[in-house]
Amino acid sequence: MDKILENIKKRRSVKSYRPDAVPQEFLDKIAEAGLFAASGRGRQGTLILQITDKALRDRLSAMNAAIMGCDGDPFYGAPALFVVLSNREYSTYVYDGSLVMGNMMLEAHALGLGSCWIHRAKEEFDSEEGKEILRSLGIEDNYEGIGHLIVGYPDGVLTEASERKAGRIICVK
Q: The domain containing residue 87 runs over which residues?
């Protein structure tokens, strides 16, 4: 099996992490994978926030939990976090950001790390608090949060992929 397909088949969403820091070199490779995602008309209208600052990570976790209506850590203790933002000016912005997320999840897996896409980035960064965070980073208001990618070393064994449902490929010849 080729390496790309093998990584696609073996990547799982991880929801339990060791507290060990992820090397900067690995974080940079994950972000680079995101930069090479396809984008509508080649516009490259996405931004990637790479967050290891514990205070900001915890602030975003608390915002996310409040939106979800829970008290726990929706980032499952992961020590590193990426946020993908996409420029609303482009009609393909949600798709473009989703492709960035997918590329980064696959690169994290290839590096032996766990990852999981965590939702509610749109709601976080559409809030006044979220807009203030973006402004403090020099980011304009026309960016929408597409997703959070939590990253770290898995704490435990990864599950096997479930059986794929039959009949999901329709060949037209």
A: 15-152
Give me the pLDDT at residue 15, please: 96
- Residue 102's CATH number: 3.40.109.10
The set of residues, in sequence order, having a beta carbon less than 8 Å from that of 145 and lying 6+ positions away, is: 83, 84, 85, 120, 121, 122, 123, 124, 125, 126, 130
Helices (H), 13-70: 24-35, 54-68
Give the other-Cβ count within 10 Å of 101's Cβ: 22
What is the Cα–Cα distance from 152 to 36, expressed in whole angstroms? 21
pLDDT in tens, 105-118: 999 999 999 999 99
From the CA atom positions of the chain, what is the Rg in Å? 17
148's enclosing H/E stretch is: strand 143-152
Token pair, residue 11, equals 């990547």
> Measured between alpha carbons, how far is 89 from 44 in angstroms, rounded to an integer?
12
